[in-house]
């Protein structure tokens, strides 16, 4: 048991999928895992553990934003021994060639969060994905017929913005999409020497204001979940 997770020691697998939305954790657990148990209900941040193709895998909601992600990731790694973490999130597309339901792999993360400034004495740190998992996820997504992109992602502490100026600058520099948790995930994974990757489904296209309907989201979560699950069991711990 840790401060925000009530699982007993050994109840969470070394391989963990991390959706922001706890209901997405429930959906993935119920649709993809065998012998599923709920290991966490604290704060309604559901977490489940089961088997995928016979391999133990957990799926734990993380909430929205870097602070919430940092709490769950720290406890999963430090208190439960998680070794491989794959965020299965949603993002807003920032390039015209990205469409609703496409997959984005966060190869690197740019941010407006000052969270890492404090850790790195005011210098900037470049959070990056684990290369092995990134490569496997890319190949797996291609095999499954997904429209997949890998590149720089903009991690933001804001969902509602006072001005879009900063977003436009990142767009000009080719950044693919915006989300809110990957800086915390990649930086903490590096700190503790474990593997991390963010796989994101495009839920909105910021250039056209298009948004996915709920039904479409579930279909796209299937593809993201399958790519993430296959990646997390294939790569050795
Ligand atoms: O769908 P999730 O995984 O929560 O990810 C995205 O959606 C939330 C904002 O609606 C933020 O957490 C953002 O990162
Ligand atoms: O973090 C996010 C996710 C989707 N769309 C946004 O504008 N921001």
UniProtKB/TrEMBL annotation:
One of its GO terms (cellular component) is cytosol. SUPFAM superfamilies: Purine and uridine phosphorylases (SSF53167). It is an enzyme of class 2 (transferase). Residues 15-229 form the Nucleoside phosphorylase domain. It comes from the Bacteria. Its EC number is 2.4.2.1. Signal peptide: none annotated. A purine D-ribonucleoside binds at residues 4, 179-181. GO terms for biological process: purine nucleoside catabolic process. InterPro entries: DeoD-type, Nucleoside_phosphorylase_CS, Nucleoside_phosphorylase_d, Nucleoside_phosphorylase_sf. NCBIfam families: deoD, PRK05819.1. Belongs to the PNP/UDP phosphorylase family. This is Purine nucleoside phosphorylase DeoD-type. It comes from Paenibacillus chitinolyticus. The lineage of its organism: Bacteria, Bacillati, Bacillota, Bacilli, Bacillales. The gene is deoD.
């Amino acid at each position: 048991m840790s401060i925000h997770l009530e699982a007993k020691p050994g109840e969470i697998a070394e391989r963990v999928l991390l959706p922001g939305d706890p209901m997405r954790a429930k959906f993935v657990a119920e649709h993809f895992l065998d012998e599923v148990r709920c290991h966490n209900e604290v704060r309604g941040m559901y977490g489940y553990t089961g088997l995928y193709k016979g391999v133990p895998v957990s799926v734990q909601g993380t909430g929205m934003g870097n602070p919430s992600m940092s709490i769950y990731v720290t406890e999963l790694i430090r208190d439960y021994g998680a070794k491989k973490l794959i965020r299965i999130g949603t993002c807003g597309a920032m390039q015209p060639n990205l469409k609703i339901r496409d997959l984005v792999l966060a190869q690197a993360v740019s941010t407006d969060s000052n969270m890492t400034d404090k850790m790195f004495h005011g210098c900037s740190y470049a959070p990056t994905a684990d290369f092995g998992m990134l490569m496997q996820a890319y190949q797996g997504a291609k095999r499954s017929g997904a429209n997949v992109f890998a590149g720089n992602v903009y991690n933001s502490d804001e969902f509602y913005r006072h001005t879009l100026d900063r977003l436009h600058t990142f767009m000009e520099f080719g950044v693919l999409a915006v989300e809110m948790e990957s800086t915390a995930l990649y930086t903490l994974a590096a700190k503790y020497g474990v593997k991390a990757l963010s796989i994101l489904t495009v839920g909105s296209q910021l250039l056209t204001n298009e948004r996915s309907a709920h039904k479409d989201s579930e279909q796209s979560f299937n593809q993201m979940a399958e790519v993430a699950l296959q990646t997390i069991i294939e790569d050795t711990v």
